[in-house]
């Protein structure tokens, strides 16, 4: 307990909330900041401190974790007037666990280095359930020494953490796995729609998929939503659109990418951005498959 670093946590959304709770449960001293203050209540009720700004949070903590929507949110929290870089704080370690462009991680790593602070990117694979269970897969990029400092935190949040290389490499790995997630989700949606249109029941096609070699974690996890035709966000569709766009910007030019990217972008335009990724099936249902 004595040797545990003090942790600051910024971003208490679908992922940040359960992750921060796990650190608190594991006995870390935790201070939180969320832009929308009422989302802090669950954590402060459970014993966390609260800061009025990222700058104030920095004063109380050795390690500061950000778990925010996208590149702009992360840059905002680092670079705004009362942001993480607004005052010198040499030796502090920042860990950004949001999914952002590899270029953003490289940019922030350089900026932190100039300010004598340390930056590690650590995006995660796994959604809300693994975040609650502490079984995420953590994809770290930065300096090896910082990874070692972050390891006790990663051991609570994940079942596996991997040090993959310099800043940007972790983000690239995250974009790669989310490309495969997109392919799985769209593949499952198209398979179900095709089968149902030809007289197979939803339940039967899902049983066939899940009992076959094609059944996997994604198909099993998303089956209940498809059966109930109800898609509360575990991983919001708008975030996958962001990740596919980031992968495209990072040079992913595969044969399947254009169709995948177009489908999810159109589904978002259709108003499905705040629903789960699996809600893409509602958009695809309107196309003829
Ligand atoms: P979320 O529920 O949308 O939460 C986003 C968080 O970012 C909220 O705390 C929000 O604050 C904050 N935020 C947004 N813009 C901000 C700004 N300009 N300044 C300060 N705070 C800002 O997202 P999530 O699902 O937790 O995902 C977080 C990150 O993890 C994303 O990069 C996502 O791609 C990635 N990820 C998500 C999943 C998943 O299954 N959900 C899985 C793996 C990775 P407010 O409360 O004020 O809006």
Structural account:
The protein is elongated, with a radius of gyration of 20 Å. The strands form two sheets. Strands 3-2-1-4-5-6 form a six-stranded parallel beta sheet, sandwiched between helices. A three-stranded mixed beta sheet has the order 7-8-9. α8 (169-197) crosses α11 (237-249), α9 packs antiparallel against α10 and α11 runs antiparallel to α12. The model has no long low-confidence stretch (mean pLDDT 96). It has two domains: 7-167, Rossmann fold (3-Layer(aba) Sandwich), CATH 3.40.50.720; 173-285, N-(1-d-carboxylethyl)-l-norvaline Dehydrogenase, domain 2 (Orthogonal Bundle), CATH 1.10.1040.10. The longest helix has 29 residues, at 169-197. It has 13 helices and nine strands. It is of the alpha/beta class and 289 residues long. Helices cover 52% and strands 13% of the residues. Bound molecules: NADP nicotinamide-adenine-dinucleotide phosphate (NAP). The site of NADP nicotinamide-adenine-dinucleotide phosphate has 26 residues, from α4.
**Ligands in the structure?**
NADP nicotinamide-adenine-dinucleotide phosphate
Query: What structural class should be given to the helix and strand makeup?
Result: alpha/beta
- Count of runs of 4 or more consecutive helical residues: 13
Q: What's the average pLDDT?
A: 96
The oligomeric state of the chains shown is: single chain
Helix content: 40-55%
Sheet of most strands: 6 strands, parallel
Within CATH, the superfamily of the largest domain carries the name NAD(P)-binding Rossmann-like Domain
Instruction: Identify the CATH class of the largest domain.
Output: Alpha Beta
Q: How many DSSP E strands?
A: 9
Name of the CATH architecture of the largest domain? 3-Layer(aba) Sandwich
Count of individual domains = 2
CATH T-level fold name of the largest domain: Rossmann fold
Shape: elongated
Using the CA coordinates, give the radius of gyration: 20 Å
């Amino acid at each position: 307990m004595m040797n545990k670093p003090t942790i600051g946590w910024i971003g208490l959304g679908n992922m940040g909330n359960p992750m921060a709770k796990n650190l608190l449960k594991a006995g870390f001293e935790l201070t939180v900041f969320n832009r929308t203050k009422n989302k802090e209540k669950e954590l402060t009720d459970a014993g966390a401190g609260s800061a009025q700004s990222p700058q104030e949070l920095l004063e109380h903590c050795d390690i500061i974790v950000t778990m925010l929507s996208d590149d702009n949110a992360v840059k905002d929290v680092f670079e705004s007037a009362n942001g993480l870089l607004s005052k010198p704080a040499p030796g502090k370690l920042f860990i950004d666990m949001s999914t952002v462009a590899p270029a953003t991680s490289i940019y922030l790593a350089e900026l932190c280095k100039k300010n004598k602070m340390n930056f590690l990117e650590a995006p995660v694979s796994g959604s809300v359930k693994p975040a609650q269970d502490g079984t995420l897969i953590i994809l770290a990029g930065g300096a090896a020494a910082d990874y070692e400092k972050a390891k006790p935190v990663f051991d609570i949040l994940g079942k596996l953490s991997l040090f993959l290389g310099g800043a940007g490499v972790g983000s690239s790995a995250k974009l790669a796995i989310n490309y495969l997630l997109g392919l799985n989700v769209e593949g499952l949606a198209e398979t179900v729609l095709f089968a149902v249109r030809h007289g197979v029941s939803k339940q039967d096609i899902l049983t066939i998929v899940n009992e076959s070699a094609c059944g996997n974690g994604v198909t099993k996890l998303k089956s209940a939503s498809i059966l109930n035709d109800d898609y509360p966000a575990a991983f919001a569709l708008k975030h996958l659109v962001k990740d596919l766009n980031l992968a495209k910007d990072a040079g992913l030019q595969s044969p399947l990418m254009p169709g995948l990217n177009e489908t999810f972008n159109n589904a978002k335009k259709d108003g499905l951005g705040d629903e789960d990724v699996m809600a893409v099936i509602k958009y695809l249902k309107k196309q003829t498959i």
